[in-house]
Design brief:
Layout lengths: L1 H26 L4 H26 L3 H9 L2
Helix pairs in contact: 1-2, 1-3
């Protein structure tokens, strides 16, 4: 059970890190195609991580992500 909780916590932390990086890019000084590509890559990675999380916790994954990102 501890490993399961650890995996969930790790995935949620990774999702938060990707989200924060995308937010910084969105509000940063860089612009244009490189900014768009960076944000797109971060959002795609969040989707992959969500899929992994969903494999562990089922449909609760989106709620967990929402709660974690809104802390």
């Amino acid at each position: 059970m501890q490993q399961y909780q650890s995996e969930v916590a790790h995935l949620l932390a990774q999702i938060c890190a990707e989200y924060e990086a995308a937010e910084r890019a969105l509000h940063g000084f860089a612009g244009g195609v490189s900014q768009h590509s960076f944000i797109t890559a971060k959002m795609e990675r969040m989707g992959e991580l969500h899929h992994e999380l969903q494999g562990l916790v089922g449909d609760d994954a989106i709620t967990m992500m929402d709660e974690e990102l809104n802390k």
